[in-house]
Design goal:
Residues 8-141 form the DUF1468 domain. The protein is an all-alpha fold. The chain is 70% helix and 0% strand.
């Protein structure tokens, strides 16, 4: 039964890999024509790597694995909800506040104390914001922190 777990998971990941690769091929051609390395290159590489790993899991499953406890599935569900909310709140709240909430909640769910978890989220959000905005000149949304 445990080999079936890996094979089912590998099959699900293979379907996701194919869909991801197909999605990457649908990216619009950049201005100036097609390039050897365009915006679709990295997603295509990820799709191929995921497909290879999935095929490996299907062909050679681990014989000593077990499904995780129900609590683990609940924690994974919470992480997915946090990431979806992060994507939805990125524009209205701004990068720094949304990152603070997302990273802080994920750190807290992984066992950190709430104050330290949200402080880590605030610092990481601020550092990444400065790096992107001033180092790479790629502006991130400020949201509620924008002064106008």
């Amino acid at each position: 039964m445990s080999k079936l777990n890996d094979r089912v998971f590998g099959l699900v990941m293979l379907v996701i890999a194919v869909a991801y690769f197909y999605g990457a091929t649908q990216f619009p051609v950049p201005f100036g024509g097609s390039e050897a390395v365009g915006p679709e290159t990295f997603p295509k590489i990820l799709g191929v790597v995921l497909a290879i790993c999935s095929l490996y899991m299907i062909v050679k499953p681990d014989s000593d694995n077990h499904w995780p406890a129900l609590r683990t599935f609940a924690e994974l569900g919470i992480a997915v909800v946090v990431l979806v909310l992060y994507a939805l709140l990125l524009e209205p709240l701004g990068f720094i506040l949304a990152t603070m909430l997302a990273v802080g909640t994920l750190c807290w769910r992984m066992g950190a104390k709430p104050l330290k978890a949200y402080l880590t989220g605030l610092i990481s959000g601020a550092v990444v914001f400065v790096l992107f905005t001033y180092g790479l000149e790629l502006p991130l949304p400020l949201g509620l922190l924008e002064l106008n």
